[in-house]
Amino acid sequence: MTDPRAASEAVLQVQDLTVDFDVRGRVVNILAGVSFELQRGQTLGIIGESGCGKSMTALALLRMVPSPPGRISGGRVLLEGEDLLQASKKRISSIRGKDVAMIFQEPMTSLNPVYTVGNQIVETIRRHRQVSRRDALEQGIDLLRTVQIPAPERRIHEYPHQLSGGMRQRVMIAMSLACDPKVLIADEPTTALDVTVQAQIFDLLKEIQATKGTSIILITHDFGAVREMADRVLVMYAGHKIEEGSLEEIRTDAQHPYTRGLLRSMPQIRTRPDQVRQPLPEIPGSVPDLINRQEGCPFGPRCSHAAPVCMEMPGSIGLGPGRTVKCWLAHPDKTAAENV
């Protein structure tokens, strides 16, 4: 994990990012004005349940929202001051994979099964760099060696189905690092991998970040992964950014009831043989249906603190530098949040 004090320059600024989908003749809001900054060399963890908008945020950053039915209807995405949402198709195509790269959630569906992993890495390199195929292949072997794949000279000529899940994920990481991106988006990079391989992947990402100064956005539903990797944490729910802060602030002083619920649901390791294992508390209910979104706070129906005022959506409340929450419980004017 990097030292947040060492990251003093914002490489990525996201301002009021909004995504809508046309569903059954209706406009459905999927992302509701999401804003955040990513500093150089920093890791931002985006966490929340499935369907909260984490992966859609990542796709929107790269203008990969499926259209139709989706569209980016508002906001700005500034990469070192350049608004990616205003860039031409040719320009955004040159940025994808070069300046901003993405490790997709499931490598078996992201890698083309009819091409060797070497062909796919070479294609990525030659798309953005003027090098011969032979040189690109040598760079690909070096990349596989960097991500600690054994016998890279042999593996580069193999097909995805010939590799284990952990190796396929490492190939995806190698492809994403082929052009030394400024920002690396890791969307559930350890899904379906066993805990040993997960730890190896996280160690690899941290080593790459320390060596190259890469900024990382880690998308996950696992707070353990966030605690392992992140400097800052952004909590999402039903398309909203509901809380943001440093890892320590979120871990020790979570303000939103949903964030507290996520923290309580983490398994605890027994420190004494006589310690009784307690059942994990759960957050009742499920993520709301965005097509039939209700008025007010989307977490209201599941919240034990819900009150009449929660029928109105609170604004983002600043609690300090880089520290925000969307909840009436944190409202400085208690009279405005009576009965909470």
Structure, described:
With about 350 residues, this protein is α/β, with parallel strands linked by helices. It has a domain at about 100-180. About 30% of the residues lie in helices and about 25% in strands. The protein has 11 helices and 12 strands. The protein has helices at about 55-60, 90-95, 105-110, 115-130, 135-145, 150-155, 165-175, 195-210, 225-230, 245-255, 255-265, and strands at about 10-25, 25-40, 45, 70-80, 80-85, 100-105, 185, 215-220, 230-235, 240-245, 315-320, 325. The protein has an 8-stranded mixed β-sheet, sandwiched between helices. Strands 2-1-4-5 form a 4-stranded antiparallel β-sheet, with helices on one face. It is globular and about 65 Å long.
Give the tags.
disordered C terminus, alpha/beta, 340 residues, eight-stranded mixed beta sheet, four-stranded antiparallel beta sheet, 12 strands, single chain, disordered N terminus
Q: Largest beta sheet: what is the strand line-up?
A: 6-7-8-3-9-10-12-11
Reading the helices and strands in chain order gives EEEHEEHEHHHHHEHEHEEHHEE
Largest sheet: 8 strands, mixed
Helix fraction by DSSP (H/I, runs of at least 4): 25-40%
Note the beta-strand portion.
Answer: 15-25%
Shape: globular
Task: Output mean pLDDT.
Answer: 87
Number of helices: 11
**Classification by helices and strands:** alpha/beta
- Runs with pLDDT <50, length 5+? 1-7, 334-340
| Gap from first CA to last CA | 37 Å
Q: Name the quaternary structure.
A: single chain
What's the total count of β strands?
12
Radius of gyration, whole Å: 21 Å
